């Protein structure tokens, strides 16, 4: 019988490079929410892929930014932690990108003592000349990395990267039970699904001022009853979230319910409320409560 392998494979990169799409492609489930807005991922999300003789713990982190307030500082702490426990580092860039937003992180990647796979994503949006230029640039910038050209959205090149990850995994017993998909509780995915709809449908500062708190999650044989609070920072934002005669909030609720029914495979009864939680993004106690610690 062959020896068992297991390890942490952490995905880092700038915002909007497709980290969540890649994570979901590896895991085969929609664990990370995906929108076209920067800073969609706020937490570090673990996706577990099991084989007979391996367990890969993929970790999707927030996009690397220069923090402007306490919430963003906490988000960057998740990225820092991704360097500390990684067995393999996936550094994701998109075709045409030339640099990482934070020089310190870039130095860490170049000096990493663990295997680094640099993935040039979204190659379906370019041509051969652009790709040749990108390959040359990144080979010079990160000489310690193995480089792969992929399209996470089209699943092009992703199986090859996965095969290489399996080869590089250290020998180790499994860290989690073999039937477990993630380290996050059900309420986390409820919160993220609702937040995704807000990111899609609301403009400007609104999505970034919102946090979701699921107060009730009661699962029966055929139905899950959920009550969630949408927290905003100001009274004016509350009115925008609710919309004219509640129409905007209703749309968020209907779309969230459909996605949650697919995710949990059960009928969902979802109640949404909106509350003002003043300046929660800059309040350390509130941030701890929402898991940013």
From TrEMBL:
Keywords: Cell membrane, Cytoplasm, GTP-binding, Membrane, Nucleotide-binding, Ribosome biogenesis, RNA-binding, rRNA-binding
Region (G2): 39-43
Pfam families hit by this protein: KH_2, MMR_HSR1
PROSITE patterns: G_ERA, KH_TYPE_2
Segments for region (G3): 60-63
GO cellular component: cytosol; plasma membrane
Boundaries of every Era-type G domain copy: 5-171
Region feature G1, mapped onto this chain: 13-20
Bilayer topology annotation: Peripheral membrane protein
Record-listed GTP binding positions: 13-20, 60-64, 121-124
Primary location class: cytoplasm
Domain KH type-2: from-to ranges: 202-278
InterPro entries cross-referenced by the UniProt entry: G_ERA_dom, GTP-bd, GTPase_Era-like, KH_dom-like_a/b, KH_dom_type_2, KH_sf_prok-type, P-loop_NTPase, Small_GTP-bd
Subcellular location: Cytoplasm; Cell membrane
Transmembrane segments: none
Region annotated G5, chain positions: 150-152
GO molecular function: GTP binding; GTPase activity; ribosomal small subunit binding; small ribosomal subunit rRNA binding
Start and end residues of each stretch annotated as G4: 121-124
GO biological process, one term: ribosomal small subunit assembly
Subunit and interaction comment: Monomer.
HAMAP family to which the protein is assigned, alphabetical: GTPase_Era
Free-text function comment from the UniProt entry: An essential GTPase that binds both GDP and GTP, with rapid nucleotide exchange. Plays a role in 16S rRNA processing and 30S ribosomal subunit biogenesis and possibly also in cell cycle regulation and energy metabolism.
Annotated family: Belongs to the TRAFAC class TrmE-Era-EngA-EngB-Septin-like GTPase superfamily. Era GTPase family.
Protein name: GTPase Era
Organism: Aequorivita viscosa
């Amino acid at each position: 019988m062959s020896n068992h392998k297991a390890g942490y494979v952490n995905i880092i990169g700038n915002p909007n490079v497709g980290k969540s799409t890649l994570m979901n492609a590896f895991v085969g489930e929609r664990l990370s929410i995906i929108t076209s807005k920067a800073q969609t991922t706020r937490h570090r999300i673990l996706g577990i892929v099991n084989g007979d003789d391996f367990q890969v713990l993929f970790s999707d982190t927030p996009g690397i930014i220069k923090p402007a307030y306490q919430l963003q500082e906490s988000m960057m702490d998740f990225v820092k932690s991704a360097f500390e426990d990684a067995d393999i580092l996936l550094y994701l860039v998109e075709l045409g990108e030339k640099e990482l937003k934070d020089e310190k992180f870039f130095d860490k990647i170049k000096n990493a003592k663990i295997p680094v796979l640099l993935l040039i994503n979204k190659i379906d949006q370019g041509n051969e000349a652009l790709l040749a230029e990108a390959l040359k640039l990144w080979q010079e910038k990160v000489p310690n990395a193995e480089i792969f050209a992929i399209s996470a959205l089209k699943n092009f090149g992703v199986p090859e990267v996965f095969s290489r990850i399996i080869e590089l995994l250290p020998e180790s017993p499994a860290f989690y039970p073999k039937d477990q998909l993630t380290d996050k509780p059900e309420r986390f995915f409820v919160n993220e699904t609702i937040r995704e709809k807000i990111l899609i449908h609301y403009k400007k500062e609104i999505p970034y001022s919102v946090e979701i708190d699921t107060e009730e999650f009661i699962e029966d044989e055929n139905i899950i009853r959920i009550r969630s609070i949408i927290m905003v920072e100001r009274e004016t934002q509350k009115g925008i979230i609710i919309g004219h005669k509640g129409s905007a909030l209703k749309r968020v609720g209907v779309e969230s319910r459909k996605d949650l029914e697919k995710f949990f495979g059960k009928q969902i009864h979802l109640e949404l409320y909106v509350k003002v939680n003043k300046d929660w993004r800059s309040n350390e106690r509130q941030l701890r409560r929402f898991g940013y610690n």
